[in-house]
Specification:
With 426 residues, the chain is mostly helical. The protein contains 19 helices and no strands.
Length: 426
């Protein structure tokens, strides 16, 4: 490859990745449940390949980003140290266990180095608007028509039967993921020019229809960001989007009795059954492990991650970590007189920060936080409202779910973060 070819390759691969990452995320989420679970792996692999191509083509820009590079290498170095300290030598566990920690910093740093061209951002925002509109339309159909609406929009009617709970899934099977994508659309809307209003509306409808508690938390966070950055470009649009999410969420709760009952039940379970709640039990198990292995954790792929559950880590029995979808968990529910239907499969810790600390230790958690902090500082200095909003949303997703260590959502959001972080300067 000649020197002349490198910028063209970097621009082409980076631009196509930006354009296709959101529709690819949505398509892979649908296909993973409806066709084959490996669809998510395929999406992750393609995204990783694109990031590596752009990174290699951008290698000359590394010298100008030494602080960011150093922070990223610190995260990777601590992951390697954790692997060695815990003698994690099995290739499959080491590889798949490490990727959730290594990939986010690689994706974010590469997107910053790439410097997305304005044309690519504009085209990608139009594609995002169309995808968000499809999600919103599907979500409304599901809320209005229930089981029939889910069938018409090509969603699974197996457990969890979301149509009975008044929670829409759009086209991504899971209401939590619908909320994540919809809220990201609201964060991207201030950049969308004349597409701003339809993107805001579609994103707000999709998020509100999901019925998740994270929606309200995120709406408040976006509103606070907009108010704190009220002199930045797009802050008014972001504030309108945040308020729209909250208003539409309330409207869905009032209009759909099943959604209201589901939200109330989940709130009551959190408050009244905290002692027996699986999340509380898993937090306790994670804290016990962190106490025993504070610095470098149990090793990537060894505790709480999807890799650890797939490999049937012996640490889960040792520390009493429950798989929220395991037969053992179902049995514990039955013993407590809870006969709700629940699926069986591989799960992971519902709090990403705990997974990072449990598998890579406090040092790994600090290194990850330092890297994310540097990206946030760059966003603030560049007055990049969208980049800052996406980072805050990802932090919320990591406190309420896997977030940062979920390659699909983290890669998508961090690629957009890095691509838009210097847009105001340009």
């Amino acid at each position: 490859m000649t020197t002349r070819d490198t910028p063209a390759l970097r621009a082409g691969v980076g631009a196509w990745t930006l354009v296709l990452v959101v529709p690819g995320l949505v398509a892979s989420q649908w296909a993973a449940f409806q066709i084959a679970p490996r669809a998510r792996l395929a999406f992750n692999a393609l995204l990783l390949a694109a990031v590596l191509i752009v990174l290699i083509a951008s290698r000359r820009a590394l010298a100008a980003r030494r602080l960011l590079l150093g922070a990223g290498l610190m995260v990777i170095g601590l992951v390697v140290l954790s692997l060695l300290a815990n003698a994690v030598f099995e290739p499959q566990i080491a590889l798949f266990g490490s990727l959730p920690y290594v990939f986010p910093v690689t994706a974010a740093a590469t997107a910053v180095l790439w410097k997305a061209p304005e044309t690519a951002i504009r085209v990608a925002l139009r594609v995002v608007t169309v995808v968000m509109g499809l999600l919103a339309v599907a979500a409304v159909i599901q809320l209005v028509f229930g089981e029939t609406g889910f069938a018409v929009t090509g969603q699974s009617l197996k457990y969890p039967r979301w149509y009975e709970r008044g929670r829409a899934t759009g086209l991504v099977v899971n209401p939590g993921r619908l909320a994540h994508i919809g809220l990201a659309g609201v964060a991207l809307a201030p950049l969308a020019g004349r597409w701003r209003r339809p993107l805001t509306a579609a994103g707000a409808i999709a998020a509100a229809a999901s019925g998740g508690r994270v929606v309200l938390i995120s709406a408040v966070a976006l509103a606070l960001i907009a108010l704190a950055a009220r002199k930045w470009s797009g802050s008014r649009s972001l504030l309108i989007g945040a308020v729209s999410v909250a208003v539409l969420f309330a409207a869905v709760q009032l209009a759909v009795p099943a959604a209201r009952e589901d939200l109330r039940d989940r709130m009551e379970t959190t408050v009244d059954d905290a002692v027996t709640d699986v999340r509380v039990e898993n937090i306790s198990a994670s804290l016990d492990l962190i106490r025993d292995k504070p610095l470098l954790g149990a090793g990537p792929g060894r505790f709480g991650s999807t890799t650890a559950f797939a490999a049937k880590s012996d640490l889960h029995d040792e520390y009493g970590l429950l798989d929220v979808r395991s037969p053992e968990f179902v049995e514990s529910l039955r013993a407590r007189g809870d006969f709700r239907e629940i699926d069986v499969g591989v799960a992971q810790l519902d709090i990403g920060f705990l997974q990072v600390a449990a598998e890579t230790g406090i040092l790994g958690l600090v290194a990850t936080a330092v890297f994310a902090g540097l990206i946030a500082v760059r966003a603030v200095k560049g007055r990049s409202l969208t980049a800052l909003s996406l980072l805050v949303l990802l932090a919320i997703y990591t406190a309420t779910g896997p977030g940062w260590v979920d390659i699909s959502i983290a890669g998508t959001m961090l690629w957009w973060t890095g691509a838009t972080i210097d847009r105001t300067r340009r």
